[in-house]
Design a protein that fits this description.
15 strands; D-Maltodextrin-Binding Protein, domain 2; 16 helices
Length: 437
């Protein structure tokens, strides 16, 4: 009984905290150990979801917060990062604490979190009012933003891109006398390297190549969308999807090269792995003795010089914000060359990739020195997939399902694996429509 009473009291306290905004870190600023109320007029609430590393307040402060304080000394920034549980979209909305600026993934989360929660705001009027030149931003990333709406609405501006690279272990290449990968290699060329480098020596298995199938499919270089553009169903059984699957599964089919996870690259037995740019730092931190370098991702021979679609994290102004002009001025600064240079120094890429930004990349990270940084800027982005017709149901398709479990565990052929993935996604669409009705 006492335990039940205590639980009720705790729950009541939690509800009061949430309704008061304290659960999200609002309400007052700590100055000299004393709480002082922040002015509503000069307070701007920034909510970050992706990139995930802004969950650490110290990282947000280092990369963004301190620069905003310097640029806008009169502005009081409130920052909250998505967390589970307690700081998800639904929690902020339930508490009536709608952010002014949202930083989130533009590929998966805009529809299901921003639009479905009626938080979207078309920024075109603000762009015109503030005479902002969007041509300064990468055109493919801007196309990604424009693809979110059939009527040309711009719900956000690109801020950060999580590109992918080919990581390779120089010691394994040296051990077997194989030349290192180069920027611009085709999948066929990398496949030949993978066959040479996949070996079993005693208890040690050297894997020639590893890649996350979900990332490969989601940001695919053929610009294929898993949902049908005009109908409420999935669309994954065409020749393009089969080409994608066949291309990657041949690496998996090399004897002894069955994929585990690219996160194992730091352990030293994987010769090549495609992973995100942030892994340059993570692999080094996990194993400071790892002798590795980077090259551009493999490319299709008939789609040359083309890397993945940009995995863009963007800045959105909420429809409910009463400080849209203030929010836009902050966003305008965050995507300026000045700010993008500062972010590049910390190892972040964004929509501004001028010579000055490229020169600054990684300057604050000694572990990047000596690496083939040119690989990050090699090639062009694959075009963003076009917008679907208005009113269609959106679901997050688990494209990796075709590989895991259907190919990896159940040895399905490519056509069957894609058909089953499409059928599952179409059923999920029907279930989602029924739930709404």
């Amino acid at each position: 009984m006492k335990k039940l009473q205590f639980t009720r009291v705790c729950l009541a306290c939690l509800i009061l905290l949430v309704l008061g905004g304290c659960a999200f870190g609002f309400g007052s600023e700590q100055k000299g150990g004393e709480a002082s109320p922040a002015s509503a007029d000069n307070e701007l609430f920034i909510y970050t979801v992706w990139p995930a590393f802004y969950v650490k307040e110290a990282v947000f402060e280092q990369q963004i917060g301190r620069h905003l304080k310097k640029k806008f000394p009169e502005l009081q920034i409130k920052h909250v990062h998505w967390d589970n549980p307690g700081r998800q979209y639904k929690d902020l909305i339930a508490a009536g604490t709608i952010p002014d600026i949202i930083m989130d993934d533009s590929h998966f989360n805009v529809q299901r979190y921003i639009i479905d929660n009626d938080l979207q705001y078309d920024m075109r009027d603000l762009i015109k009012k503030h005479n902002f030149d969007t041509s300064k931003l990468d055109s493919t990333m801007m196309d990604r933003m424009k693809s979110l709406s059939k009527d040309g609405a711009i719900y956000g501006l690109p801020f950060h891109v999580g590109d992918y690279l080919l990581y390779y272990n120089k010691d394994i290449f040296d051990k077997f006398g194989v030349d290192y990968p180069k920027n611009g290699m085709t999948y066929d060329e990398v496949y030949e390297l993978a066959k040479k480098l996949t070996r079993v020596e005693g208890e040690m298995t050297y894997k020639g190549y590893s890649q996350n199938p979900g990332h490969y499919m989601n940001y695919n270089q053929l610009s294929l969308h898993p949902l049908h553009p005009t109908e409420d169903r999935a669309n994954m059984t065409g020749d393009g999807w089969k080409k994608l699957v066949d291309n990657l599964r041949r690496f998996y089919d090399i004897p002894a090269n069955q994929f585990t996870t690219v996160e194992d690259f730091y352990k030293g037995n994987i010769a090549m792995a495609v992973a995100g740019t942030d892994r340059i730092v993570k692999f080094y931190e996990n194993n400071k003795n790892l002798n590795f370098d980077i090259a551009s991702v493999p490319m299709f021979s008939d789609v040359p010089n083309t890397k993945y679609q940009p995995n863009v994290m963007s800045l959105y102004i909420s429809k409910q914000s009463a400080k849209k002009d203030m929010a836009f001025k902050v966003i305008e600064y965050l995507v300026s060359e000045e700010m993008q240079i500062e972010l590049a120094r910390e190892g972040n890429l964004g929509p501004v990739q001028t010579a000055a930004v490229k020169e600054a990349f990684g300057k604050n990270l000694p572990q990047l020195q000596g690496k083939n940084i040119e690989a990050l800027f090699y090639g062009k982005y694959a075009p963003a997939t076009p917008a679907r017709n208005p009113g269609l149901t959106y679901i997050l398709v688990n494209t990796q399902y075709a590989f895991d479990p259907l190919i990896f565990k159940e040895s399905k052929d490519s056509v069957t694996a894609l058909r089953m993935t499409e059928e599952l996604a179409t059923k999920q669409i029907k279930d989602a429509k029924a739930a709404k009705q």
